[in-house]
Amino acid sequence: MAGQAQDRPVLARKAEAGRPDPGAPLMTAERAISQALSRAAGELFDLPLAVSAIRERRMTLSDLPELLEELSLLALIEGPQETLGLLALPPATLATLIEVQMTGRVGRAVAPPRRPTRVDAAMAAEFVDAVLEGIEDGLEGMEEQVWAGGYRYASHLDDPRPLGLLLEDLGYRVWQIDLVLGPAPGRPAGLLWAVPAQGHFRRQPVRPTAGAPAAPAPESDAAEAADWARRMEGTVMGTQAVLEAVLHRVTLPLATVMTFGPGTCIPLPEDALERLSLEGAGRRRLAPARLGQHRGFRALRISSDEDEAALPQAAKPLKMKTAPPFEPGPSPFAAAPAPGTAAAGMGALGLAMDWDGDAGEAPAKPAARRSSSA
Fold this sequence. Notes:
Layout: H1 2-17, H2 29-45, E1 49-59, E2 73-78, E3 84-89, H3 91-103, H4 118-138, H5 145-148, E4 152-157, H6 163-166, E5 172-181, E6 187-196, H7 219-237, E7 244-246, H8 254-257, E8 276-279, E9 285-294, E10 297-302, H9 305-310, H10 341-348
Helix pairs in contact: 2-4
């Protein structure tokens, strides 16, 4: 009996060791996301990060682009069974992450928004992976880990239009998070995280301990990853891109444009053929170019500002000269109609009216005809 009494405290301590601390706050998806963001920013960049608001919504793929802030870095994240999600870093968030990595601190003013580059994506990829891994670990043993776990950075986009081709058309869990970055008072920022509503994550039974070398991936997994990368590249690179070679742009009054007809000449600068602009969607200038020939066909030679500066003095294009301005002419619709034209036209319709428009008011409307039955 004495031995049993001594064993009871030991057994009780072992049983209580596996129970959650009753004083600890209950873990939720919101709490896991907030902790993962703060831990990733602090451990990677020594950057204070506070979550001021977090909201979850259920949305379809067609509604997702409406929530994306313009010029955001769109990080494609890959999850279990080749599912894809999205983690968007708005310009203020991305600029702060780049700034703290380059200078080691957060400045007073945020940099002006610009289109994200591959370098920006590479510098933000570690933060994205750390956040996703932190969310996965924070939801260990919970049902939410099924849809939240297993995602890592895969690629990036600087334009939301290809999302409809890359992501599956299904329901998504969309998390909109308001952040405050840097020391007080902090810099307002944000983040958007979207994953399929129905997940497929399953934790592996054996998990490597901290500090242990990671086991090499099986050959089948490596082959699947390589195949997915090839298909992803084929999908992205197969997207149609429309380019325009702009010779020159002229701004004219509408009255002048209305006088255009066959044989109208539009003056151009003398060096217009050597100062073409290759432009993409939205008139975005991609590169300067020059017009020439190649094997008997008209061709466009792409150049750069450095190439133009390196040309010999004799080979440089002519000095830019502004085209002479147009003189607005009379509108063809302002000409007076030929005598009798309007009356003849109205008469042909049975609506001829004996009325001089310069004499005064219009005649009274004739009474409506009534048909009488015999």
